[in-house]
């Protein structure tokens, strides 16, 4: 189905997706706070040819971080992504931010600033993890029922997109003859009103280079029609394919499959997995899981190319699996013509072959 | 003011410190000059901060405004407007600098401590201990209309909330024990963090509560440095009790600056702190020339660039509370008093509440006395003239300000982006260095060290050796 090159993204949070990854990592446990490690890991992913990198995050303790054996520390994902903006040139930067814990007005400015600093390589991974203590942390009522949470996520995404649109692209005119820096008719109050928040004014930050950052969201969290990239999981290939088809039917623009990977490295997968599982079991998530050799993963990806536009890989242990991906998987995908390397100067939308949206305030049909 | 006047040097070897304040929005930034670059592009910020770091500045400072300014109900369109989120932008700039401090102005009224303290701590760790927070408050519902919390706080309550907010932020920053995280996996037993190594935050203040288990350790400077800019008696007391640095408006007249410094020292001691615990950095700008005459001529040119005909009419429209854009800026001021007695705060000026009638009468009195047009009267009333002169003369004045104990340094707003610091760094800094009054290299790596600050307020009196694990924030990487 897909004639476009395959999009391959990678999750870089913590030490890896296996809860015991920090024990097997070549980096010390506290390396999750180390700017040099962050830079090195992101550059490895960029040089390996990934389209974008994602950084998982949560404001408060989640089920994943609550267990005593797991990594309980991480830096804010938008801050990490912004730090990487001037250190990278081609790879997209996608922090995860869950809408229930944020002020949408601040989030829109933060993400727009990431896009400006990265010259158009910003994205936003929308999530909605169970955070039992979120209301205590932010000192206000947060939506709790499934229906309310889904509506809140959709409302915040829509509000943030509207804030990005609130400055038209050519709002700064610098007209010396009239002394006007902006054309005030091209900067718009957003006038958003939802059951849980309202926003009156325009963003404090001009429209980002991509117009709107790439919005990435799981099909379980956001209506695929409201995302630019929809993430789908599934216990096996057939389940992933079915979810992808459903997402497309629901209006998805791009669909990526979520795959956890543990690969043969210096040590074979069986031995690696046994050592990791001895400390903490790798509970099943919504993602497809692949354990095996690099050629095996290549075969799986080829199998998926008809059903999805790409994949987001979750290495079990970053320091072990990321090098295998960059040495033995990405180069072969590129050689086979399945993956096109991002080019310096391209925006992430260019890399994903997504159009740059017009501002809602300049479209004839709406405002 | 007067370099020729004698003031006993209270601190004969004190050094001048510089910060740069990238304002973002105001009429003092000249966008119309052909040399002016983009006010928004990352490269403009990068160019300025690299110049400041070349000039061995302590800090790079970003402002904040949470609603676009309006004049009489319409967006103000004459000045630079539109700027990045401060913490996000400083995180990007941290990656391409090594020493300079990174100050983010952030509001306590429209943020949550759990979120803001975490973002600041993340910046502090990634920058190797160079982050600071300029604590500001807002009390108007107009700004609140952009936020979940909405509404407004009265003037006293906004400081109560700021105090509670700081208490919660410090609890977030004090959460990780210095040895909380396992140094190596093989030494770790079962846990990434040792039991009890990360203390949950449970703050229940008068105006807010915050319950969260933080995820970020301290940087090598302990806490982000706290800046504060309040000038009212409440604001000054708040600063004396809480801040490391005051960003003051008292840096052009030496007597005024000395009086302010004495007042702050008195309040600081009353708060139980050493008198020199709060550093004073007034905002200023410089106009430098090869001769005094050249500098004065340049200053005249500059102020006419800053206050165009349209800007002058906009300023009086704001004061009079009505649209006066139809008037001739080269003609006389309106001869009636404003109908509305008080300026609408924050909507346009950022200057807070003022008595509109008094402002208008003062403008008119000066204009009548000296025969000034609207534009010339607005120019004459402009308070932010800064220092004008040759590098040597300005250097002498700055040294007197610092060594008399009136200030610790200056926060410079360049009037041109991105080249506006070049002459300061190339001409004024060497003049200060020749006088033995400015560092010739960075001696420390953290902002706290650059400013000569003590440990964070909640970290004093701990046992020796309880420093944060230096491995947790290895030096920030260069580009």
Automatic annotation (TrEMBL), chain A:
Name recorded for this polypeptide: FMNH2-utilizing oxygenase
Keywords (A to Z) from UniProt: Flavoprotein, FMN, Monooxygenase, Oxidoreductase
Keyword Lipid metabolism set for record: no
Lineage, uppermost ranks: Bacteria, Bacillati, Actinomycetota, Actinomycetes, Micrococcales
SUPFAM superfamilies, per database record: Bacterial luciferase-like
InterPro entries assigned to the protein according to its UniProt record, in alphabetical order: Diverse_substr_monoxygenases (IPR051260), Luciferase-like_sf (IPR036661)
GO MF term set: monooxygenase activity; oxidoreductase activity, acting on paired donors, with incorporation or reduction of molecular oxygen
UniProtKB/TrEMBL annotation, chain B:
Residues that hold FMN according to the record: 105, 155, 159, 232
Record key words, sorted: Flavoprotein, FMN, Monooxygenase, Oxidoreductase
InterPro entries xrefs: Diverse_substr_monoxygenases, Luciferase-like_dom, Luciferase-like_sf, NTA_MOA
Signal peptide: none
Molecular-function annotations in GO: monooxygenase activity; oxidoreductase activity, acting on paired donors, with incorporation or reduction of molecular oxygen
Disordered, as annotated region: 330-353, 456-479
Compositionally biased tracts (Basic and acidic residues): 330-339
Homology family: Belongs to the NtaA/SnaA/DszA monooxygenase family.
Name of the featured protein: Nitrilotriacetate monooxygenase component A
Organism: Serinibacter arcticus
